[in-house]
Amino acid sequence: MRSISRDIVSAIIISKDNKIFLGRKDPSKGGVYKDCWHLPGGGIEKGETDEDALIREIQEETGIDITTYNKDLLSDTRRGQSTKILPNKEEVLCTMCFKEYKVSIHDKEALHIEVRVEDDLAEYQWVDINDIKNIQLTPPSKELFLELGYL
Fold it and tell me: Which of 12, 17, 46, 117 counts the most CB atoms within 10 A of its CB?
């Protein structure tokens, strides 16, 4: 199996009422960690800054515009591996370097944040921070939530 490497941006999006946005990817559209809940995000394109990629990926996957909110870098050293199906149907081993951010939507409760699940997300949920321990997370997300004391 061929291997590829990707730099990935993702964000813990927290609403005013302390709920975290999580999405589940559609493996037929190239998603990885197919049975787990993800932080929204995706690959950094050539010539794109990390912040520009984060804004674009969040907009593409969730419809949420994070342009005016603070984007605080939490970690840029986490690594992960998973198989991935490319658009040409080739299965590859994807090694990822994650750049993880926190975005607080301090002025809206989760119920009032307009979400449009698009791109490779199949579904989403807002999870109370205290209930995150009951969710099947991707391994990198689980590591991050452990470090932050959410698990």
Answer: 12
